[in-house]
């Protein structure tokens, strides 16, 4: 049976060892180790995207990278080359469990309380070593943050670790956001995080699709009781600076429009990072790429060149206000060119002074964004369902065609 034909189940995520079919061929997701790709890895991925895929590369909201447009018959070659780049896990289950986001400036940020990468490495090793943890649900994830700038601590993860004055705080995801339980020492933080994952599995049971935030009160109490002996009470104040763009404090951050890089842009990013004195590209849940710069002049030059190769470096760029999934032709669920139409909408919104959030989705699944947006357009038979202050499953105001886009923003400047 072909790879594509063997994969029709939902509720799992694609990996290098477990590709997922999409409208433009197979998708392979690469999870960077410790949140970073070396420049050799980045260049190798750009070459593979161009040679074996369709050249499109997605940055995901879980700080991963996806190659698109791959074919069944190319998978053995692709996987062999990924192995040469040290980007292949032992097996598909080990790969699927390694859902760990690391603060993108870890080890580069003078304002961080702790370089958390050593803790992240121990957690990744622990996830791979404990076969019981392979029963974690596909989207179950952890994050670890050093408490500095470009902090990811406010992002959602089933288990969160944050460097605080008292050590490393551990939090669990709840419907109201992360609930911080207490702190442990940096040396014990990985052990506590892995204990939290095991306690979740004990509470939720094997082969569960539950997430930490969907556990019953009794099951949450089980997880907490397993962790209580490891934690001391602590105060947690979330770092105030999350997503950052442009040049700042010895690093640079750049966004790809709608999270889509082309192979040449990834090559360009690797060249910029090398010229700026960095050996890595760091990924983030904001679909932005970061790297260190040896000085302000190197950072500014990197920003100037990044702008020229089509990356977003200005926090006021209208494309940052709009989310769009790939749509047609990449995704077979869509009848509309979601990203092409989103670019038109972004230009119209900026021209009319509309500053609100916009979400353009090829279908109601809403892959690009799960939270509500002010203006939501969902593809249907070549037109769009229009909603306001809603998710993609909100109440439909009316059906519109692309010729009605300009009218959507009339009066925005006055309002
Ligand atoms: S939202 Fe629908 S059309 Fe867009 S990528 Fe997801 S499944 Fe495809």
Search tags:
globular, binds iron/sulfur cluster, Sulfite Reductase Hemoprotein, domain 2, 29% helix, 5-stranded antiparallel β-sheet, 4 domains, 415 residues, alpha+beta
What does this structure look like?
The chain is α+β, with helices and mostly antiparallel strands and 415 residues long. It has helices at residues 3-6, 39-51, 75-84, 92-97, 117-129, 186-204, 217-227, 263-275, 296-308, 338-352, 405-408, and strands at residues 20-22, 25-30, 36-38, 56-59, 65-70, 100-102, 142-145, 159-164, 167-174, 177-184, 246-248, 251-255, 260-262, 280-283, 288-292, 322-324, 358-361, 373-380, 383-390, 398-400. The chain has a 5-stranded antiparallel beta sheet with strand order 1-2-5-4-13. Strands 3-14-15-12-11 form a 5-stranded antiparallel beta sheet. A 5-stranded mixed beta sheet has the order 6-7-8-9-10. Residues 1-9 have low confidence and may be disordered. The structure holds iron/sulfur cluster (SF4). Iron/sulfur cluster binds next to loops.
Shape: globular
Strand order of the largest sheet: 1-2-5-4-13
Number of strands: 20
Low-confidence stretches: 1-9
Give the averaged pLDDT, no decimals: 93
Portion in helices? 25-40%
The N- to C-terminal Cα distance equals: 58 Å
Largest sheet: 5 strands, antiparallel
By secondary-structure content and strand pairing, the structural class works out as alpha+beta
- Distinct bound molecules: iron/sulfur cluster
| Count of alpha and pi helical runs | 11
Cα-atom Rg, whole angstroms? 21 Å
Number of domains: 4
Strand content: 15-25%
